[in-house]
Each structure stands twice: as C-alpha cells, then as structure tokens.
Amino acid sequence: MADVTAWFTRVTRLPHFTRAFGFVKVCQKSLKPPKLPVKEKPKVEKKAEPVAHAKPEAAEEEKKEKNPLEALPPTAFDLFSFKTYFVNVPDKRGAGHAEFMSKVDKEGYTFWYLHYEKFGDEGRIAYKFQNLLEGFIQRLEGFRKYSFGKICMLGEEPNFELMGVLLVRGQVIPQELIDHP
Predict the structure, then answer these.
(1) Cα–Cα distance for residue pair 175/31, rounded to 1 Å
(2) Over the chain (181 residues), what is each successive 10-residue block's mean pLDDT?
(3) Partners of 168 in the beta sheet?
(4) CB neighbours of 80 closer than 8 A, spacing ≥ 6?
(5) Which has fewest Cβ within 10 Å: 116, 119, 136, 171?
(6) pTM of the predicted model over 0.85
C-alpha cells in the first residue's frame, strides 16, 4: 500500500488535479471497514408443482427467434465441414480453393464483395482502423455459421482500405449485414 499511497500523493499534487479538485490531504490513520452482521437466509422448502402447471419445453423453443436463413431450402454444401477441412488443409490456395469451388452450392449461397467506405480521416492510423475491422467482425459473431470469407486491411499508413469477400447463405444480403453496414 505504500507505493499506492505515494502514487496517489504525487497525482493529487499535480497542478491540473489541484485546480479541478483542490488540495487533498491524506489521513494519518487508515480506517477499517465496519463488520457487517451475517444474516442467514431462512430455508424455504420447495413444493412439488402439479404436472398440469409445468411449462412445456416446446413452448420455450418457439419463443426463441429463428434466423430467417434457417427457413431456406436445404443445400448439399455443408459449410461447417468445409470450414473444418479448409482450416486443416496445408495448400489453401491450391487444393483448398479447388475443393471450395467444386463443392460450393451456388443456388444456396452467394459471394459478396466488401469495401468499407471511409468516413472523415478513417484509414490513416493503423491501430484505429484495425479496431474498426475487429469491431465489425465481432458484431457478426452470431453470423459465422451462415458465412465464410476473408476481410483484410490493405495498404499502408496513411491510406488503409478494408476489403473482403464473404460467402453467405441465401441469395440476398442477410439482415446481419444490413444491421452492421
């Protein structure tokens, strides 16, 4: 605690701090927190509910919103299995890409080209622009099971661009991408 106290003393003596908050005097003797009485919770006996009042699990499942992409016609392309294969294939540009193009269902999936439209002075500082990219990808976390692709930060300071390609379930832009333009 001695180091923390010394740091606090140095901070409170800074001119900006004293102008905003005034002079702070540290107490000579530390205060001890009061001991609170421990209250025991009374034991409540659970009563067995009649079976007639039990909530059916099917009703709870219906309340959960289903993604509209689940209602699309079935497709022969198993995206999860392909992602597993692609992560483990050593030659992604050769064998991985050839396998991808031979198996993708062009009726059930579409390719989308992404190009981020910069606003103001965006794209000038690498770490700030990288944060934009990571935030975009983080907001699409729940959409991963319906998409596959690559989004990259290209260029050099002070002129970065965000571009990418996504394979997305369905033939129209999904709501997840509309919500996070």
Answers:
(1) 56
(2) 86 89 82 77 65 55 72 87 91 91 90 88 89 87 88 90 92 83 67
(3) 110, 147
(4) 145
(5) 119
(6) no
